[in-house]
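Title: Comparing notes on inverse folding

I've been comparing how different people in this forum approach sequence design from structure. To keep things fair, I'm posting one structure and asking everyone to reply with a full sequence. Here's the target:
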């Protein structure tokens, strides 16, 4: 069973959203680049 944060601030995210973020951390939308490596000014 997952723990739920009842503190003020960020809420619990669905497990599916967390898994997608985990995958895209290494390969953002199939670009072969991490989401952290892409410029915030890029068109991707």
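Reply #1:
Here's my take.
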């Amino acid at each position: 069973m997952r723990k739920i944060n009842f503190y003020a601030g960020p809420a619990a995210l669905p497990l599916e959203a967390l898994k997608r973020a985990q995958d895209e951390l290494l390969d953002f939308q199939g670009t072969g680049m991490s989401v952290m490596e892409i410029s915030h000014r890029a068109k991707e």
